[in-house]
Amino acid sequence: MGMPVRPEFKPVLDKSPLRQSLGLEPDPFTLMMSAGYIGGGHVPHLFDALMEQMLAGFVPRTQVIYLTGQSAPLFDHASQLKLKHPGLPLHPVSYVPNMAPWLQASDAIVTKLGGLTTFEALACDVPVLADCVKTPMPQEAQTVNYLTTLGAAIRITGVDPFLDLVTTLPQQPDRLNLMRQQGRKLVLPGASDAIAQDVMNMAPFFEKPLVTAFRA
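Given the sequence above, the corresponding structure tokens read:
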């Protein structure tokens, strides 16, 4: 049936106008780093390592969207870093009710492979860099194995491999395009509508048992 995501999660071919509307630079390689809803996983450590390299001038033209979710400490830390270094191409973003435009503006996303964010990224045609610095939970490990075997994601196993990847990936458009192509194989447009319609079609068959169980 597919993973149901909201219809606004879809590819955007020309990212420049969208980036400008979000206060981003229109042209540089744009990397989203998502710390998740509560700001967990190893992404904050990867973020700190990347900022050190960017401040030292070791990362080519790349801008970072840092989604800190509900974590005020992570957002404050990133905001202070941006305040101290105004020229740093960093854009901290706290919790947003709709992350579709931020995903659509990105060229790749770093995230742990939770079910929803992963498939929202694939629906937006955004390659996934999977946070595997620590061993993922079993259900996430299966997603990592599936996507990396297919070629739709890259496994991040440590800080140094991550920094190497961020440095080289913007110069590898063919690799990024291949990841997008492989990710498209997993996208089922209209999955939410199909699931909703199937539920409606099944409703008459379950109406009486559901009512009986509720009354009991």
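Residues 15-189 form a domain with the Rossmann fold fold (CATH 3.40.50.2000). Try to locate this feature in the token string yourself.
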